[in-house]
Design a protein that fits this description.
Elements: E1 2-6, H1 11-22, E2 26-31, H2 39-42, E3 47-51, H3 59-66, E4 71-74, H4 82-86, H5 92-106, E5 113-118, H6 134-146, H7 148-164, E6 171-178, E7 180-182, E8 190-193, E9 206-208, H8 209-221, H9 223-229, E10 235-238
Parallel strand pairs: 1-2, 1-4, 2-3, 4-5, 5-6, 6-10, 7-9
Antiparallel strand pairs: 8-10
Length: about 240
Amino acid sequence: MTVLLLGATGATGQLLVRQLLDRGLKVKAIVRSPDRIPDSLRQQESLSLIRASVLDLSDTEMAEHVAGCEAVASCLGHNLTFKGIFGQPRRLVTDAAERCCQAMRANGSDKPTKFVLMNTAGNSNRDLKEPISRGQGCVIGLLRLLVPPHRDNEKAADYLRTEVGKNDTKIQWAAVRPDSLFDEDNVSAYELHPSPTRSAIFNPGRTSRINVAHFMADLITNHDAWEKWKGQMPVIYNTES
């Protein structure tokens, strides 16, 4: 299996590269700065680095990169700096998802390509009408208005829900929603839920990046996991000790 990965230089993206390689997969990663990939990964024969910005690729180039891939995964996000939060591109995650899905439709595969998106527990799955408190609703409304990355995450998931849907013959998708991210050295016990079980604003859970990478790799490689969560937005929390 070959996987195309976006956001491979990020904290979670690097962990997903390792997870996929350790499972014997071939990985093609579109990266702007290949030198940000650790040497231990760059030396792997099963990893191919494509030096480019995903939003600068032509439609033909994007289709060529997707061709031959059984899955595409995106760990793209905005840097937590002033420029990263308020600068361009403000629709990085959404536009990249749209570009990938258009390429999947164009590549002529005889079976659907998987698309796995890293999203956030602060974004509701409006297919399920997830209940949120009035206070959280107010805060989310302010984030949507004032913080472009939050709006970008919402739009990316909405594109998958409403534009791709669950019956597309070329694309199947899942959007993984971690809560407050932190670093941990090893995969640990974690829980998966169709919807948040706690408030992402007033009572957030914690999710280690390596557990997110492990679950995303599971969705790509494990048939049962994919059949359970495709077309959904599973929430992932570390199991509390």
